[in-house]
Write a structure and sequence with these properties.
The structure holds two protein chains of two kinds. By secondary structure, chain A is of the alpha/beta class. Chain A has helices spanning about 45-55, 75-85, 100-110, 115-130, 145-155, 175-190, 280-285, 305-315, and strands at about 5-15, 20-30, 35-40, 60-65, 70, 85-90, 165-170, 195-200, 210-215, 225-230, 235-240, 245-260, 265-275, 275-280, 290-305. Chain A folds into two domains: about 5-215, P-loop containing nucleotide triphosphate hydrolases (Rossmann fold, 3-Layer(aba) Sandwich); about 225-315, Sandwich (Jelly Rolls). Chain A has eight helices and 15 strands. In chain A, the strands form three sheets. In chain A, strands 10, 11, 12, 13, 14 and 15 form a six-stranded antiparallel β-sheet that branches. In chain A, a hairpin with a 5-residue loop joins strand 12 and strand 13 (about 265-275). In chain A, helix 3 crosses helix 4. Chain A is elongated. By secondary structure, chain B is an alpha+beta fold. Chain B folds into two domains: about 10-55 and about 245-365, no CATH class; about 70-225, no CATH class. In chain B, about 45% of the residues lie in helices and about 20% in strands. Chain B has helices at about 10-20, 25-60, 85-90, 200-205, 235-240, 245-275, 280-285, 290-325, 335-360, and strands at about 65-70, 80-85, 95-110, 125-135, 145, 155-160, 170, 175-185, 185-190, 190-200, 210-215, 215-220, 230. In chain B, the strands form two sheets. In chain B, strands 1, 3, 4, 5, 6, 7, 8, 9, 10, 12 and 13 form an eleven-stranded mixed β-sheet that branches. In chain B, strands 2-11 form a two-stranded antiparallel sheet. The relative contact order of chain B is 0.19. The chains are: A alpha/beta, B alpha+beta. The interface between A and B is large, with 43 and 34 residues.
């Protein structure tokens, strides 16, 4: 049994009146002492995955288990307890409480979970020593560097000794000198019988990783090949939220691009007829499909890898 | 472990630290609210003074019964005059121990009437006063707190709120009197001071010298009705005397209530602003397992502390406000004790909206790099 198991996870949420599906059928298993790095373009669902594992978002379907215990079905108080004791979160912008000093930022979490003042203070001081901030305990966040703040945030994430640590772009606001200390600390966390999952754009983290999880295909992937597809009336070519590596040209017929609204209804956002293309953004930026493509009547389309699509555009020009 | 476990510690820690962190803003809020509290306290004192002065004035005359012409609601509000000699008739009624006539009227001070004890500046040359003519040394004759009792037709005993001193001259409707003594707290109709003169003197400027009275004060209890007169108790007289200021008192009480609401509004606005600014903090705290109830009570604690601080400031500002007031301000210990209670209520009411907002913050906001 893995320490962290994510099975067939689909997450939907509302954005600007539309239903967005950043994760669809996602799977992940991680064991203790393992450090995973989630790579992917902005908007591909990295933070969504971390939020869902942290119990902050409810998935539409699928399951998450930590040490074999289901997370998705937890109710209010169980969820609060889960957030306290099972996952520690390190945020991109540190997100320390500005009015509290370093020790109090950590102590607050311990006391919220029911520890006595003395016990909480001792724990906070110990953790700040672990991250090398024993001489900064009385400093407020505003008096510390970004790297020091991030290490306080790591100490806070460890306050109740959770088995899973989630870090969202932990090096985004740090210069290269500050990054070093944070990377070292994150690696040490995984070595202490924990699972650490880091969402990042920062490829400097890759050498630390035991596993790299790419949430979106690499831009300009060369793996896919051109394909012709015959579609019947009403047939779905791809659905909103699907990963996409091909750009489609309409050879004949009509394709409707449909976006799902918050209320579950569909909105036709555009139609592509013979000679037009669609679906270029997903492969171009490594994002999930932002709409569903459905044939209206019989249609024939050609799916082109990005490389072929670009070559064709340079000779034929943009959409009519 | 339940959600509320050891809730007080972390609530105090976060709330107190935030108050310290944003102390300038909270101090401003406490000062503004304190000013409102002080004003509300003073309003309460003014409203109280209406009933206190009625009680004290009626008590000062020391009667068991007040005899007034039948149909008259009371001796102070409707001046139904009758011959002062009626008192002599009443004295003979079995059960009556003492009966003395009084004449109640109003007058205007004219010309310089003396000097302010504090500044030596002449007191306003025109001032409304209530005049009560009494028999010197008899029932209704005032107990002076300074100077001598009323003695002759040229003498007057005056409530100290008129701003004159013993030995000063005052003119009532152009008739001059010498202030021989002072009384305190004998006012009515919203702080209008009473001037006691002899019954004969009162007759001089209110009834062309006719020996008239508007009430007969009694000690003892008459065993039979007195034709053409009704005997009123102190309570009935107080009720009659308080009636003209009832509306004013209600209006002041309404203003007082509105001031408490304004105070709640100020505290609420500051706490709401704070809650908006701390939205990111709340999201993070929820994301790391702080129960919503802690966030709710944290803001509630802040609001109550600000309101209690404001109550303290309110006490301090009320003192100079009351001293500068033209109207009497009478506050009892219970009024002062009520302020912190009201402050706590104000704090709770003020914090409900921001606290609910804080408790409902989506913890997922903590992700994404923004605060």
């Amino acid at each position: 049994m893995s320490l962290l198991e994510v099975d067939d996870l689909t997450v939907e949420y509302s954005s600007g009146g539309y239903r967005v599906t950043p994760l669809k059928g996602f799977n992940l298993q991680m064991d203790k002492r393992e450090l995973g790095v989630l790579l992917g373009a902005s908007g591909c669902g990295k933070s969504t995955l971390l939020s869902t594992i942290a119990g902050l978002l409810r998935p539409r379907s699928g399951s998450i288990r930590v040490k074999g215990s289901d997370v998705v079905g937890l109710k209010n108080q169980e969820l609060t307890r889960y957030r306290q004791t099972s996952v520690g979160v390190v945020f991109q912008a540190f997100n320390l409480i500005p009015s509290l000093n370093a020790r109090e930022n950590v102590e607050l979490i311990c006391r919220t979970a029911g520890q006595s003042r003395t016990e909480a203070r001792r724990r906070a001081e110990y953790l700040l020593e672990v991250v090398g901030l024993e001489d900064r305990m009385g400093h407020r966040p505003g008096m510390m560097s970004g790297g020091q703040q991030q290490r306080v945030a790591i100490a806070r994430a460890l306050a109740l000794d959770p088995p899973v640590i989630l870090a969202d772009e932990p090096t985004a606001h740090l210069d290269y000198i500050q990054v070093e200390g944070v990377l070292k600390t994150l690696r040490q966390l995984a070595d202490a019988d924990r699972t650490v999952l880091i969402a990042t754009h920062d490829e400097r983290l890759l050498p630390l990783a035991d596993r790299i999880i790419e949430l979106s295909p690499r831009v300009g992937s060369h793996d896919s090949i051109a394909e012709h597809q015959h579609l019947d009336d009403g047939e779905i070519l791809f659905e909103q939220g699907d990963p996409g590596s091909l750009v489609y040209m309409v050879d004949s017929g009509l394709i409707q691009l449909i976006r799902r609204r918050d209320d579950g209804s569909d909105e036709i956002i555009s139609e592509a007829s013979s000679g037009a293309y669609f679906g270029e953004l997903a492969p171009m930026f490594g994002l999930p499909r932002s709409a569903t493509a459905r044939a209206v009547g019989p249609a024939v389309v050609t799916g082109l890898p990005l490389r072929d699509f670009r070559a064709q555009m340079s000779t034929s020009g943009p959409n009519p | 472990m339940s959600e509320g476990t050891n809730a007080i510690g972390p609530i105090w820690l976060a709330s107190i630290r935030d108050l310290q962190w944003r102390w300038r803003r909270f101090l401003l809020a406490a000062l503004a609210t304190g000013l409102v509290f002080g004003l509300a306290l003073m309003m309460s004192g003014v409203a109280n003074s209406f009933s206190v002065e009625v009680h004290d004035t009626v008590s000062a005359l020391g009667a068991r019964w007040w005899l007034v012409p039948t149909g008259s609601p009371g001796p102070f509000t409707v001046a139904a005059a009758f011959p002062a000699s009626t008192a002599a008739v009443v004295r003979r009624v079995p059960g009556v121990v003492t009966a003395e006539p009084i004449l109640v009227s109003r007058a205007l001070t004219s010309g310089a009437v003396g000097s302010s004890p504090a500044s030596g500046v002449p007191v306003s040359s025109e001032k409304d006063v209530n005049v009560i003519g009494v028999v010197p040394g008899g029932l209704g004759s005032p107990q002076v707190v300074e100077g001598q009792p009323l003695r002759g037709p040229e003498s007057a005993v005056v409530d100290a709120s008129l701003g004159v001193e013993v030995g000063d001259q005052i003119a009532l409707n152009d008739i001059r009197f010498k202030v021989v003594g002072l009384v305190r707290g004998v006012t009515y109709f919203a702080g209008v001071p009473v001037v006691f003169v002899t019954l004969g003197a009162a007759d001089r400027f209110t009834a062309n010298g006719e020996p008239l009275a508007t009430a007969v004060l009694l000690r003892g209890t008459p065993t039979r009705p007195i034709a053409g007169f009704t005997a009123l108790t102190d309570a009935q007289v107080r009720s009659d005397l308080g009636r003209p200021t009832t509306q004013a008192a209600k209006t002041i009480q309404l203003i007082e209530l509105l001031l408490w609401l304004v105070a709640a509004g100020i505290v609420g606005a500051i706490i709401y602003l704070s809650a908006l600014e701390r939205r990111g903090d709340f999201a993070v705290l929820k994301a790391v397992g702080t129960p919503s109830s802690h966030l709710f009570f944290g803001l509630l604690v802040q609001a109550v502390l600000v309101a209690l601080g404001a109550a303290l400031i309110g006490y301090l500002v009320e003192i100079p406000m009351a001293r500068g007031s033209q109207m009497a301000v009478r506050l009892a210990a219970s009024d002062y004790l009520a302020v912190p209670v009201v402050a706590v209520i104000v704090g709770i009411v003020a914090s409900i909206l921001p606290a609910r907002r804080a408790a409902r913050v989506d913890p997922a906001l903590a992700f994404g790099g923004g605060r």
